[in-house]
Each structure stands twice: as C-alpha cells, then as structure tokens.
C-alpha cells in the first residue's frame, strides 16, 4: 500500500494502517537514530514519541512532504531535543546500521571486493567535514533523495547536491591516489 493511502487511512482512524506505517518505517528509523549516534533508549523513545504524535494529531496533521521525510525529520528533531540542541551528534560507524542484502548470485570474490570497496569508501567519508559526512551517508546508506535530505536538515537542495558532489569527488580522488601512487 502506498504511503499516501496509508496516511489517509490513519487520518480516518484506521489502526491497521497506522501499524503498517509503523512496521514499514521503524527499521529505517532505527538505523537512522543509530547513525545519528543516539543511544538505544533515546532512539526508541524518539521513534515512539514521533509515532505517538502522529496518531494523536492524525486528523489535523498536514504533511507537505513525503511521510518518509516527515518521519526522518521528526526523529532527527526529537533526538536533537533529547541530546540538547547545541551538542554535536556523533556519527557511528557503518556496522551499527543494517547491511543491504548482497545478491546470492555474486561470486565470493565479488562479495569480498564490494565489502572492501565499502570499507574504503567509509574510511574516505570519515575524513569529510561533519555536515558533508552526514549528508553523504543519508544519501548513500539511507537512500534518501536530495529533497528529502534538504527537508530533514532544513537546508536547500542545492546545498545537499553540493555536499554530495564534493564527497564523491573527494572519494574519487582518494581512490585514484591509492591506485596510482606517485
């Protein structure tokens, strides 16, 4: 069922639609709060608060973006509130976020190559400035669109594009240096 349809049913007091929305987005939001560096209790509290608010305000809720962007932004804001607005979020290593399934059709050497490449890219991304790292990881790991990232972080889509472009360029240059040492 599409998100728009689920949200319409939630607004009409359909608990099954609400449960479907929760089950669909909870794993993604759990990865996201871990990525933001929130502890398990804080992250689960943030997600619970967001979904509780969604249910309580369901009939007057106005979402002008996608439900996915709304939920990511709401969880990020809750975590910022829980951690204190001026405290920097510490990004956690990739192993705390769920892995994308690797196709069963890949050969072992292809799987190893992909894993090594992923680790190398992660190392390069860790060298980026904090905001660039956050934006790139939201795009690369969480598969968020530029507009969604912009809405979540309250920045312009062009800023998002610039950070992603710079991160890709940086990783590309670092890979070239590794492959062609001089």
Summarize the structure.
With 182 residues, this protein is mainly alpha-helical. It has helices at residues 3-11, 15-35, 40-56, 67-83, 108-126, 130-140, 146-153, 157-179. The termini are far apart.
Q: Which class of secondary structure composition applies to the elements?
A: mainly alpha
Determine the N-to-C terminus distance.
Answer: 55 Å
| Coarse shape | elongated
Helix content: 55-70%
**pLDDT averaged over residues:** 78
Please summarize the sheet with the most strands.
Answer: none
Report the radius of gyration as a whole number of Å.
18 Å
Please count the helical segments.
8
> H/E element string?
HHHHHHHH
Task: Please tally the β strands and state the result.
Answer: 0
The residue ranges in which pLDDT falls below 50 over 5 or more consecutive positions are 85-104
Strand coverage percent: under 5%
Top keywords for this entry?
182 residues; 0% strand; 69% helix; mainly alpha
Fold and architecture overview:
With 182 residues, this protein is mostly helical. The protein has 8 helices and no strands. It has helices at residues 3-11, 15-35, 40-56, 67-83, 108-126, 130-140, 146-153, 157-179. Helix 2 (15-35) crosses helix 4 (67-83), helix 4 (67-83) runs parallel beside helix 7 (146-153) and helix 7 crosses helix 8 (157-179). The chain is elongated. Residues 85-104 have low confidence and may be disordered.
Question: What does the secondary structure layout of this molecule look like, with pairings?
Answer:
Layout lengths: L2 H9 L3 H21 L4 H17 L10 H17 L24 H19 L3 H11 L5 H8 L3 H23 L3
